[in-house]
Amino acid sequence: MSKPITFLIFCFFMGSGLMRLSAQTPPDSSLVKPAPYAIGLQLGSTGIGLQLAKTLRADSRLVGRIGVSYFAYDRVFRVKAGEGKLNITPDLVVGIALASVKWHPFRRNQLFVTAGAGYTWRPNVKANVIAEGNVKFGGLQISEENVGVVNASLKWNSVLGYAGFGYGRSTPIRRLGFAVELGAYYLGSPKVDLQYTGFLETTTIDEQIPVIQNNLRSYRFLPSLQFLLTYGLFNKR
Question: Within a 13 Å sphere around the CA of 170, how many CA atoms are in the beta-carbon half?
Answer without folding.
Answer: 29
